[in-house]
């Protein structure tokens, strides 16, 4: 069984891209559409929002919960 090495620098860059795109989007729908251009999607789980690859369906990183709540409050206003 092969285990992929988790690259924390790459994971941080992915999270930065995803959160930056969220800040530029007016809705969750637009945000998810924009992420598809990068080959990413967002999956809701019990642990929070997870960024996944559209290419192979693997989970890439979990978004920080505090950022999600902050963004939700920002866009609810």
Describe this structure in words.
- With 77 residues, the chain is an alpha+beta fold.
- It has one domain (8-65).
- Helices cover 49% and strands 21% of the residues.
- It has 3 helices and 3 strands.
- Strands 1-2-3 form a 3-stranded antiparallel sheet.
- A hairpin with a 2-residue loop joins β1 (40-45) and β2 (48-53).
- α1 crosses α2 (28-36).
- The N and C termini lie far apart (49 Å).
Instruction: Kindly report the average pLDDT value.
Output: 81
Beta-strand portion reads: 15-25%
Give the overall form: globular
**Uncertain residue segments:** 67-71, 73-77
> Reading side by side through the largest sheet, how are the strands ordered?
1-2-3
Largest sheet: 3 strands, antiparallel
Roughly how many Å apart are the termini?
A: 49 Å
Order of helices and strands: HHEEEH
How much helical structure, as a percent, in the residues?
40-55%
Query: Helix segment count?
Result: 3
| Alpha carbon gyration radius | 13 Å
User: Domains counted in the coordinates: how many?
Assistant: 1
Give the total of beta strands.
Answer: 3
Structural class: alpha+beta
């Amino acid at each position: 069984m092969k285990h992929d090495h988790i690259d924390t620098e790459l994971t941080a860059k992915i999270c930065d891209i995803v959160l930056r795109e969220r800040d530029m989007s007016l809705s969750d729908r637009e945000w998810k559409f924009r992420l598809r251009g990068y080959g990413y999607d967002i999956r809701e789980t019990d642990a929070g929002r997870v960024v996944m690859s559209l290419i192979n369906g693997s989970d890439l990183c979990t978004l920080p919960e505090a950022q999600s709540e902050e963004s939700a409050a920002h866009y609810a206003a």
